[in-house]
């Protein structure tokens, strides 16, 4: 008996060693093939990145949102194109932006990347170009220029609430990271669901939904690198990773919020409780309306993915632009004075209604917003696209089909040939006789067939927020250790880890 079990153990050990050897040999073979026989073998970059995508995982997950900074550093060593993963190239030549994202390029989104947002059934998440075209066509009427105009009163109302709260808090410093995001979150959620959220009225702007969205952000890279982890996350005990546990709880809370609000919207639809101007969700939940491509095959409620991506795409981006812009305006007395003077010149009685068309015609306000968009970037991760079906020429390099390519908006917005002194906030750069040529390099909203669907809404929010804030209030920065917004972690959105912007405000003259 003893002999038999010894024999079994020995055989098992031999089998395991054999399997391990095969795995090892396979790994060596794959590494060798990727290094020397892959279509991207001739592109420069770290050898380890050419061998395994775990190279990126290390910077995304272990270092935490450090991949972009690392890639930008790699360009200093390797030049304008770098192989950043076995099948992926990153460019930092601004010509590549047009070559990759323009309508003519026709590259598709990289499915392996976009699955981490868990919104495959949304305009943002769909990969197939034809499906994307249909979704964008259906959503367009709700986010067109005309729709943004009809949203104006809603936006005004929210911004007025913000101004009133800031004024009331007076000597108490207000956290503007939260404050701006409560406004944008309220605008998009109320537009989508027609149910008041009132995040802006929360004590110290600490709206639970907003805090949960923010807390769940770092989970993104974990899910991207280990997709099946989503299944196991509920079982990861706190003692293994308190931070992952917290992120997961926040992630679940956002999902629960959406499920609940969609369930309520469904009841409203069934009761037809909105006769005129129903919220966006009702158009999609109404069983009598047929939206091609909008049936949800998964177990999630209908419109869930769309709502999740719209809330995230629509709130943090504008909030971040307002925070970064406000910081720079307050840091620069000349800019601050010039902006206030321009606003006062066309809007002498601040309690009277100002026409948004008038605001949109103001050269300095427009330049300030453009500069705020440039320095806040939008989505900083290189938006990955798959070349195909033929090879393509990107910034002068011939790239084989099926290669994943991208260029971060940061590589364009921080290019000193296009934007001299790129780290400085200089609205005047947008007002020179030659400035209209500069517009094509402001790529915050991306370009081409997958360009931002909500840019008109974003512009309307930005005009009203900046104008109301700087015309109606006298504002000053509180504290001297505030983050200067130069450094950020890359979690698709830029995450600033320094002290958030706090201000004190009082009613202006
Ligand atoms: C300053 C504000 C904003 C910036 C900088 C911004 C930026 C972007 C960028 C760069 C993309 C392309 C993403 C990709 O290719 O993966 C995008 C897509 C998108 N954005 Fe925005 N966005 C802003 C505001 C908004 C708002 C307010 C909404 C609507 C509520 C919105 C809705 C969308 C949607 C639905 C997409 C997906 C389009 C597609 O993939 O076809 N965005 N946005």
TrEMBL record:
Binding of heme, residues: 452
UniProt keyword terms in alphabetical order: Heme, Iron, Metal-binding, Monooxygenase, Oxidoreductase
GO function term, MF aspect, one: iron ion binding
The keyword Glycoprotein appears for this protein: no
Pathway: Secondary metabolite biosynthesis
Keyword Hydrolase in record: no
Domain of life: Eukaryota
Cofactor dependency: heme
Similarity comment text for this entry: Belongs to the cytochrome P450 family.
Protein name: Cytochrome P450
Originating organism: Crepidotus variabilis
């Amino acid at each position: 008996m003893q002999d038999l079990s010894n024999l079994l153990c020995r055989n098992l050990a031999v089998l395991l060693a054999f399997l391990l050897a095969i795995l090892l040999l396979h790994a060596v073979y794959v590494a060798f093939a990727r290094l020397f026989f892959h279509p991207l073998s001739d592109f420069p970059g770290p050898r380890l990145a050419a061998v395994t995508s775990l190279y990126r995982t290390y910077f995304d997950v272990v270092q935490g949102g450090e991949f972009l900074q690392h890639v930008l550093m790699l360009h200093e060593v390797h030049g304008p194109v770098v192989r950043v993963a076995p099948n992926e190239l990153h460019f930092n030549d601004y010509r590549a932006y047009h070559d990759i994202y323009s309508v003519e390029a026709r590259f598709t989104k990289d499915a392996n990347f976009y699955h981490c947002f868990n919104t495959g059934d949304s305009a943002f998440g769909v990969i197939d170009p034809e499906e994307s075209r249909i979704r964008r066509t259906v959503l367009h009427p709700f986010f067109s220029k005309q729709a943004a105009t009809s949203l104006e009163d809603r936006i005004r109302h929210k911004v007025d609430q913000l101004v009133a709260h800031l004024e009331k808090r007076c000597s108490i410093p207000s956290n503007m990271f939260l404050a701006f995001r409560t406004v944008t979150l309220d605008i998009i959620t109320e537009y989508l669901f027609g149910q008041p959220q009132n995040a802006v009225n929360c004590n110290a702007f600490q709206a639970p939904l907003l805090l949960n969205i923010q807390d769940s952000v770092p989970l993104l890279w974990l899910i991207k690198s280990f997709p099946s982890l989503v299944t196991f996350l509920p079982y990861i005990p706190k003692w293994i990773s308190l931070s992952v546990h917290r992120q997961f709880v926040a992630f679940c809370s956002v999902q629960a919020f959406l499920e609940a609000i969609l369930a309520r919207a469904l009841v409203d639809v069934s009761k037809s409780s909105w006769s005129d101007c129903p919220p966006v969700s009702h158009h999609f939940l109404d069983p009598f309306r047929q939206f091609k491509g909008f049936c949800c095959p998964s177990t999630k409620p209908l419109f869930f993915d769309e709502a999740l991506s719209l809330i995230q795409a629509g709130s943090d981006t504008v909030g971040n632009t307002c925070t970064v812009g406000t910081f720079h305006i307050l840091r620069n007395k000349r800019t601050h004075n010039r902006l206030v003077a321009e606003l006062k010149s066309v809007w002498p009685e601040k309690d009277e209604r100002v026409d948004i068309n008038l605001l949109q015609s103001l050269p300095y306000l427009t330049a300030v917003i453009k500069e705020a968009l440039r320095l806040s970037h939008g989505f900083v991760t290189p938006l990955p696209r798959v070349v195909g079906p033929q090879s393509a020429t990107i910034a002068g390099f011939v790239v084989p089909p099926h290669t994943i390519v991208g260029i971060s908006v940061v590589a364009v917005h921080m290019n000193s040939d296009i934007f001299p002194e790129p780290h400085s906030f200089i609205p005047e750069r947008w007002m020179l006789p030659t400035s209209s040529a500069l517009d094509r390099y402001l790529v915050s909203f991306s370009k081409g067939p997958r360009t931002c669907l909500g840019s008109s809404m974003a512009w309307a929010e930005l005009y009203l927020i900046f104008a109301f804030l700087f015309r109606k209030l006298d504002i000053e920065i509180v504290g001297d250790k505030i983050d200067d917004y130069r450094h950020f972690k890359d979690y698709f959105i830029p995450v600033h880890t320094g002290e958030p912007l706090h201000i004190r405000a009082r009613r202006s003259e």
